[in-house]
Amino acid sequence: MVKDSLHLLGMEILPLRMPALKRARLVKNNQLQTMVELFHDDTAGSGQVLTEELPGFFPQGGDDFKADLILLKKFDDVPSFDVYSTRITLRELNIPIDDHEALRLSEAKREELTERMKTFTHPLIGHVYGAEAQSVDDLQGILGMFKDPDPKTALANLRKMADSLGIELMDIPKFLEDYGDIFLSLAFFRDILDKTVPTIHQYLEWMAELRESFVVKQDRAQDNMLAKIEADLTDITGSITGRFESFDRKTNDFWTDINAERFHEVRELITAHHRTVGGVLCGLTLKMEHWKKKFRNSGAGGPQQRLEFTRSEVLPGLDWIKDLERRGSQINK
Fold first, then answer.
1. Contact at 8 Å (CB) between 15 and 90?
2. What is the dihedral of CA 8, 13, 17, 21, to 10 degrees?
3. What is the pTM of this model?
4. Is position 96 within any domain?
5. Residue 255 structural domain
6. Is 39 within 8 Å of 47 (Cβ atoms)?
7. For residue 14, what is the DSSP state?
8. Is the pLDDT of residue 2 over 90?
9. Are 91 and 124 members of one domain?
10. Are residues 75 and 145 in the same domain?
11. Per-residue pLDDT at 261
12. Domains identified in the chain, total number
């Protein structure tokens, strides 16, 4: 689904003036360029052009097209089109996004992440309700307790949570919404990382076989290229995994003394990393998914095929991913 994607953005959510552009979408290609996909189907494939090439397809666009082009160019350098990074971009452009369902993960994805979310919801529930927490499974369960048929019980639950968090009664629904959303983003990105890292390891094993081939052993330049790719992927993977471990430490510290101020600090920390984490994961998943699709299994492809794929599909943009991860790892240091 597009709204759960890191590399696709439906342009219907943007305030574009031309209906033809609203039907298109932004796509990150395997070289991590932002492309405008004008059409896509199983028969004709994908019709992608750079933003700067659009005038050739809309020669009579006029003022509406020029205004849309200015807006679209602002997305050229956005590293990922996940909903969290996109929200930040739209806020910076002063485009209203309040309650925009297109900028939330799909219901199916939220359900898929339910188990991961328990890591974040149960500490809050247990902190506020103690033994009662056994009957509450998620943040919606907390809201359900507030709707208790007994007004006194509902009010007591509200006051208990407000006192614990140091906030006003009327602020609890907004706090729960923010709490759920920020940790859902963390669960979403962590899920992608955990699914991508094993594929990277498989790819590196596949590439190690290539380095043992006669084709590479007789060409030091090619071997050096492969060694650099291996080192870069290992460094990037280790660095972004370390960032998630840092998030874990910060959230564990927060749960030892849950209050609104400390949650604000955790939220600001995680939000500050959204775009770099999203961009790095977007780049890694695009390349690894393309590898899996191209070779189907980790034993496929002769040395020349492997070498050409790595040189043309994995290498381009890898320095960009590495630089983005380097910059991301420096946030809040």
1. no
2. 20
3. 0.90
4. yes
5. 190-329
6. yes
7. S
8. no
9. no
10. no
11. 86
12. 3
